[in-house]
């Protein structure tokens, strides 16, 4: 009972529309309305900095399914993006873009996002160093050279959807290992799907040695796994190895309804706290208001509707593993992949809403993602 109360309180802390603030005209506005206004202002300010050519690249309709689902986690030379490219932006345009992102993300989410973008330059440097160590005759040198253009913090793209003067609009920022999709509909904010990744997850050497990305997500999942008894582990572990097709990335919506693993009803109070902490690690990447709306949907579904699943060895942080949290209004996947230098120092992570990705439920639209190899 206590864990149900804890989760309910977590959801009630910022119930969407519940907290009010007084506007100058005396009209009471909710915190979410205030957040939407800030997001709209920042997005309009960004658009005002663009020239006609950039605006034509950046702006399209909410019904443009191809554009809304053209995000990817792959390098851009493997999966070309649409939108206005950061590489072609002026200083003022880049500042406006960061203001747009900061208005929608929490401080935690903004820091994770910008670190992942910056990390592309670290990856470029690491690959360049590895290539320099190879002999000119080594075929791997030529192969590495073809990858270098894809690792660049300027190879990120921005797309704006809909009419900002209306009730429904949104934006996407995407590049290698990153895709943020925000939708505003009738004053409500959705931030899914949100893809975050990193390679290397922990920088192995050099001036940034030891820097790590998306570490707390893994730490929280391992804490939950460590708390499970033998019978619970048997229910949570789906397979001793990772299924290459399990991760619900782009084009994998068909897997959203297939809940696996141990049910939250089979967890004790302490384990449920670990589970809700893991969920909050992901919800906390969005603004308080957007996170509260998503949390309230999860609370409404009921704690016992959640599942936790694991693939791969248990208790081996350096091995290849994957975990999933799934309920009617939430899906979280995190997988550790092989890195270029060997070992598993490469992670992909995503949070989705099976009922409302891209704000589809609110908009009354269906967005079908193309499969990504």
Q: What would you note in describing this structure?
A:
The protein is an alpha+beta fold and 373 residues long. Helices cover 38% and strands 19% of the residues. The protein has 12 helices and 15 strands. The strands form 2 sheets. Strands 3, 4, 5, 6, 7, 8, 9, 10, 11, 12, 13, 14 and 15 form a 13-stranded mixed β-sheet that branches. A hairpin with a 2-residue loop joins strand 6 and strand 7. Helix 1 packs antiparallel against helix 11. The longest helix is centred in the first third of the chain and has 26 residues. It is globular.
Brief rundown of the structure:
With 373 residues, the protein is of the alpha+beta class. It is built from 12 helices and 15 strands. The termini are far apart.
Which SSEs are present, and which pair or pack?
Layout: H1 2-12, E1 20-22, E2 28-30, H2 31-49, H3 52-58, E3 59-60, H4 65-68, E4 84-85, H5 91-104, H6 107-132, H7 139-147, E5 156-162, E6 168-175, E7 178-185, E8 188-190, E9 194-198, H8 215-227, H9 230-236, E10 237-239, E11 262-263, H10 269-283, H11 288-301, E12 307-311, E13 322-327, E14 330-337, E15 346-352, H12 360-363
Parallel strand pairs: 3-5, 10-12
Antiparallel strand pairs: 1-2, 4-5, 5-6, 6-7, 7-8, 7-9, 9-15, 11-12, 12-13, 13-14, 14-15
Helix pairs in contact: 1-10, 1-11, 2-5, 6-7, 8-10
């Amino acid at each position: 009972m206590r864990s149900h109360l804890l989760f309910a309180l977590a959801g009630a802390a910022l119930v969407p529309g519940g907290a009010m603030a007084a506007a100058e005209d005396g009209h009471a506005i909710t915190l979410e309305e205030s957040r939407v206004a800030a997001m709209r202002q920042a997005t309009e300010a960004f658009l005002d900095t663009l020239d006609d050519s950039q605006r034509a690249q950046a702006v399209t309709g909410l019904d443009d399914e191809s554009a809304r689902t053209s995000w990817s986690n792959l390098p851009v030379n493997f999966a070309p993006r649409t939108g206005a490219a950061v590489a072609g932006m002026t200083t003022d345009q880049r500042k406006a873009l960061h203001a747009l992102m900061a208005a929608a993300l929490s401080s935690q989410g903004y820091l994770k996002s910008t670190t992942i973008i910056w990390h592309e330059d670290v990856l470029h440097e690491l690959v360049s160093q590895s290539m320099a160590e190879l002999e000119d005759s080594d075929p791997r040198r030529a192969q590495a050279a073809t990858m270098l253009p894809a690792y660049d913090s300027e190879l990120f793209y921005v797309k704006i959807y809909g009419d900002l003067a209306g009730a429904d609009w949104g934006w996407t920022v995407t590049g290698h290992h990153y895709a943020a999709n925000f939708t505003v509909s009738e004053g409500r904010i959705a931030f899914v799907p949100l893809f975050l990744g990193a390679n290397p997850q922990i920088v192995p050497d050099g001036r940034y040695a030891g820097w790590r990305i998306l570490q707390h997500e893994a730490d929280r999942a391992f804490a939950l796994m460590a708390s499970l008894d033998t019978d619970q582990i048997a229910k949570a572990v789906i397979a001793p190895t990772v299924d290459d097709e399990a991760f619900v990335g782009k084009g994998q919506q068909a897997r959203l309804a297939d809940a696996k693993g141990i049910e939250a009803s089979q967890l004790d109070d302490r384990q449920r706290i670990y589970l809700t902490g893991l969920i909050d690690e992901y919800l906390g990447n969005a603004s308080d208001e957007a996170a509260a709306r998503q949390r309230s949907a999860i609370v409404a579904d009921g704690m016992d509707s959640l599942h936790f699943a694991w693939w791969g060895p248990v208790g081996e942080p350096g091995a290849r593993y994957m975990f999933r949290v799934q309920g009617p209004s939430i899906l979280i996947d995190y997988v550790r992949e092989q890195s270029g230098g060997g070992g598993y120092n490469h992670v992909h992570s995503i949070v989705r809403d099976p009922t409302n990705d891209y704000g589809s439920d609110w908009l009354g639209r269906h967005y079908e993602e193309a499969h990504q190899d």
